[in-house]
Amino acid sequence: MSNFAKIVKTTPITDDYDISNTVLGLGINGKVLECKEKKSGLKRALKVLHDSVKARREVELHWRASGCKHIVEVIDVYENAYGGKTCLLVVMECMDGGELFQRIQDNRDGAFTERQAAEIMHSICVAVRHLHDTNIAHRDIKPENLLYSSMEPNAVLKLTDFGFAKETLSPADTLQTPCYTPYYVAPEVLGPEKYDKSCDIWSLGVVMYILLCGFPPFYSNHGLAISPGMKKRIRLGQYDFPDPEWSSVSSEAKNLIRGMLSVDPAKRMTIQQVMSSPWVRQYTQVPQTPLYTNTLLREAGDAWPDVQDEMTRSLATMRVDYDQVQVQIKALEQSNNSLLNKRRNKVGA
Predict the structure, then answer these.
(1) Which segments of the protein form a coiled coil according to its record (predicted)?
(2) Among 199, 98, 198, 134, which residue's Cα sits nearest to residue 190?
(3) In this structure, are 172 and 316 located in the same domain?
(4) Beta-bridge partners for 221
(5) What distance in Å separates the CA atoms of residue 76 and residue 121, rounded to the nearest whole number?
(6) Where a domain ends, among 43, 60, 93?
(7) Looking at residue 295, which CATH number applies to its domain?
């Protein structure tokens, strides 16, 4: 990449950082370790990537996007050799506050409210607007990639993991590679047709839906990460707002979800339109209506990690050069998700 040489340092990372064996998380393309900056003593996160065209693209796009408050900041990038292989070592700010849904699930200070959901959506939308304004499609917006900066009440929510990100040089540019996480995938991404950065808006709509009720709008009835029936429902935009979870949610919120979950990308809202909606723009005025979200997430217990594991295993089938070949999601063995059991009987297989 043209700007990659300007970003990367070739000195040993150990000159500047002490690296631990503590694994903070797993991204699409590599694991994330804890490290400490020698000069400041600050804890950082270190992502380890095997050098490749794909990895360099991830690093450069994440670096370019780092100027936004709601995107995890890249601090340093090193190119070092380990065991005869060249690795890219990406030092980022350490996000100690945990994943979005885990934080909601762990919250014991009363019910999660619609106003809180609107504030979260505003933060995510700021990140997506920054990306789209700089012609970057993230292509993997999901709760596991939304992390809090700390455990403090005023912690900042930030978007991370640019392993699927792609540059779109103009609004007319399209993407054609099958990069997605099943629960959040836009209908046009499932097929051979081309798609653009509006696929991020669909994913935003799915995240917003779960924020407001505690379960996803589309899922497999058989415990699979993705199934033929689920694909069909996504393609047709078949979802509902069932009671009692949705009975008190505002019509403004439901209409916003409808606008983001339009199966026709040409009719789907843009990020500018989403942010112009009163529900997002004036989030401090959204009603403080109690939601079922954290109750359902707590009732689900370990179900959300199960859901995430299924997604990760599906994504593992795509860890090839997905810009060169078409990749098919492999069928997974059946599993049982208590989080989704309540909804499985309401939708056909």
Answers:
(1) 315-342
(2) 199
(3) yes
(4) none
(5) 29
(6) 93
(7) 1.10.510.10
Residue 349: inside a domain: no
Indicate the residue among 93, 120, 146 that finishes a domain: 93
| Per-residue exposure over 113-152, b if at least 16 CB sit within 10 Å of its own CB, e if not | bbbbbbebbbbbbbbbbbbbeebbbbbbbbbbbbbbbeee
Model confidence, pTM: 0.82
The per-residue DSSP string of 66-102 comes to TTSTTBPPEEEEEEEEETTEEEEEEEEE--TT-BHHH
What are the residue numbers of the active site?
140
Query: Per the annotation, does 330 bind a ligand?
Result: no
Per-residue pLDDT of 139-194, as tens digits, reads 889 888 999 999 999 999 999 999 888 888 754 444 444 444 445 555 555 444 45
Name the nearest CA neighbour of 213 among 233, 234, 239: 239
Determine the structural domain holding residue 74 and report its residue range. 4-93
Are 212 and 231 contained in the same domain? Answer: yes
Residue that is written with structure tokens 């070592």 in the block: 89
Tokens of 230: 């689920």
